[in-house]
């Protein structure tokens, strides 16, 4: 129960979180590249004066002292020999730390005055990545992608596996032998080679990821369903349907598949974490989703390259991935025990 509640909360946080963090997942803050996680807003007081002078460093103005009053920063500027150009405030507005820059206290000759700007307070609770993007927003958005791929790929695997296994198990004989030998052959194919081939042919994208993973993970599902079908087709209600002249398709649809719900649901809950882990592994190898989209695997791969300088880039996405995988596995184990007749 606790695992189910956790997964529901995780899904809601990943779905709603990026809308309330105040950042877009692909928004770049050039002034905040690789800043550490902090519960206090940026910029810090010591950073305001250097950043304000840096923003005006290309204007060829003589820069004076910087003063800070509440949420407003001002700097004394002068332009000997020529009047100040009001357009120089654009240089300040281009900096992520400031907004609404304007001229004030201009002298009579127009050659000196102050530039006043509002200081933008921004929170980066997880810090920012190598491009200056908010890591919290990207981690939550990545959760959407990873969870969506996990669920969609599992549904693809379920559809193919249940159909294949039920048909093979019910028809039996030569059809069963041919279909299951096909499964054995597909088992022998290297998964990574299959995905690389698809990436080369169709490029990296979201749809390809869940189709590729789902098209491989149905093999175990097919074997499980086939075994259950072999047992079910000897039951009295199936024999009664056959005696009444119900077609094979009707028996599969109305009697076999509905009675497979228990084992299929249990296996699905155990397959979702496996699929998410596979997607993360592929993204770690550079075969996952493309920028600007991201997933937990992509973030972990980026964080691994900077683990010494910025360990948070790896630890935060890894914590989300690990906790989700644990919850899914606990949920699967709980459902398996609840539906196992031997445990009743």
UniProtKB/TrEMBL annotation:
Pfam families the record matches: BPD_transp_1
Domain of life the protein comes from: Bacteria
Domain ABC transmembrane type-1: 143-332
A GO biological process held by the record: transmembrane transport
Keywords: Cell inner membrane, Cell membrane, Membrane, Signal, Transmembrane, Transmembrane helix, Transport
CDD domains: TM_PBP2
One GO cellular component, as annotated: plasma membrane
Bilayer disposition of the protein: Multi-pass membrane protein
Family that this chain belongs to: Belongs to the binding-protein-dependent transport system permease family.
Identification of the protein by name: Oligopeptide transport system permease protein
Source species of the chain: Breoghania corrubedonensis
